Amino acid sequence: MSKTSTKGIWKVISASSMGTMIEWYDFYIFGSLAVVISTKFFPSDNPTAAFLSTLATFAAGFVVRPFGALFFGRLGDIIGRKYTFMATLLLMGGSTFLIGCIPSYETIGFMAPLLVLILRLLQGLALGGEYGGAATYVAEHAPVGQKGYWTSWIQTTATVGLFISLMVILATKNVLSAEAFDSWGWRVPFWVSIVMVGVSYLIRKNMDESPVFAKAKKEGTTSTNPLKESFGNRYNLKFVLLALFGATMGQGVVWYTGQFYAMSFMKTVMNIDSSQVDSLLGIALLLGTPFFIVFGWLSDKVGRKYIMMSGMLLAILFYRPIYKMMYNTTDVSYKTEIVEQTSQNVERTQNNDIITTLSKTYTDGTSYIEKKTDFADKKKSQSSITININSADEWTLIFLVFIQVLFVTMVYGPIAAFLVEMFPTKIRYTSMSLPYHVGNGIFGGLLPAISTYFVTHSKAAGKSDFYLDGLWYPIIIASICFVIGMVYIDNKNKINHL
Amino acid sequence: MNTIKQALGILWVILAVAAAYFCVFEFGLPKLLSDQQDDLVFGIIILFILTPLIVLGLGTFGYFAVIGEYNNKRK
């Protein structure tokens, strides 16, 4: 189909991937800096601001992305892929930069959280439009029989974006003092975005339109109403539903479990020090990322279906043993305490709050700090546990997270090629974007909230393995998706439109 | 294989109905009626986003499967 040379396709890949990676970076820094952002814009003692905070976290991630997919997907199928995903890039970059410029709640009051919410929604809309455009653009340039390989480069961008966001935040924290970071330094990762977006815009500006779309436009075979043709036509609708329930739904939960639930599990259930979690997650992501390319390439040889379904099956079978092993690494009841080094310190603050700090050290090098604050008004107390793990445990956790990232690469590596091949050129951008963002944004995005709900519920019920119950959500969703995918999806895609 | 595809279609329709019950009565409404702000947003998303999506989406998918839309056509 395509006459693009290998040199030409690398140009296409780099232009597309860089922009998509930046969009993921922009999307993730908000999540990674959520704690700082909430103190600056969403004071917890103000119920309206707290409500807006929850809305900003939830709405942008779940609700808005599919709308972005519909809005920009329609544009991409009418005016072209290139201009549409340039628009999403500028929208995302502009919104991110502006979040970094908003004065705090203390300065402009209620306008601050409202502006953050609006900009966060715009970020969600942009992300909803970007991915489908980039995947379609690359696939329509790629040679026949190599679409899995070439589109897998786009698939690396989400993980690389997360990795770079963690690194930029870590670097900013290292360069600045804790006070400076808290005061204004947290804005730096947001400002960095505008530079990256500027460079990416200039690169994308000089790219040509997708040859397949340009040909369709020349022949007058593009759609005038992609939404109606995608979802109002039974033939296309059945493939949209198959893509969602037989592929992206399971892929979404595997993706979110491997990269986000693992992170929140280590921070909140295992109580590992936040910086240790960020660095071990960064290493696991770095080691796992090349496998997106490996499985994308392999999907060209053996078919997309069996790679994606194998990833889902492995995740279903191994999530519980993996998380049990992860939990056991920091379970101090299995460790030997060095009693002589145990200390307890009690101090009284200016507000007459009493802070009790209990420190323990274990023979394997693990340290345990429990801090309890009894507030002077006696109405409430607050306690937190921080565990610093030893090097051996750190590498065990890197390995266990890496295994989960491998499952992610199996389900996610081939999916762009799978989706673009499923739909014809004239409605491709719209039709593939919606199941992707519903599967990832809604089924995947709801995972932290639903899984945390299961864990809290089981803990309250006194179950000894309460920490594993959060995994039921991804296991059930992935199992349904696995059965649908195995039964209804054809490995040799007979409806390949590329 | 076509018979399995069609028979499983009934299962997807039943699953959509079961999901509707759990999403509304086990997750959605209790969260919506709770006093917590976080729960309120979570309840709204479960009731008005996830429930229609699963019920209508999976139900339609099941219906299409039952009527043979996903069957392999003989050549």
Automatic annotation (TrEMBL), chain A:
Gene3D superfamilies found in the cross-reference section: MFS general substrate transporter like domains
Membrane-crossing residue ranges in chain numbering: 21-42, 48-72, 84-105, 111-129, 150-172, 184-203, 239-259, 279-299, 306-323, 397-420, 432-451, 471-489
Annotated keywords: Cell membrane, Membrane, Transmembrane, Transmembrane helix, Transport
The UniProt record lists the keyword Membrane: yes
Localization: Cell membrane
CDD domains, sorted: MFS_ShiA_like
Major facilitator superfamily (MFS) profile domain residues: 12-493
PROSITE patterns: MFS (PS50850), SUGAR_TRANSPORT_2 (PS00217)
Record has DNA-binding as a keyword: no
InterPro entries hit by this protein: MFS_dom (IPR020846), MFS_sugar_transport-like (IPR005828), MFS_trans_sf (IPR036259), Sugar_transporter_CS (IPR005829)
Pfam families documented for this protein: Sugar_tr
Membrane topology value: Multi-pass membrane protein
Protein name (database record): MFS transporter
Organism: Flavobacterium hungaricum
TrEMBL record, chain B:
TM ranges: 7-28, 40-66
InterPro entries for this protein: DUF6814 (IPR049211)
Keyword tags: Membrane, Transmembrane, Transmembrane helix
Name of protein: Phospholipase_D-nuclease N-terminal
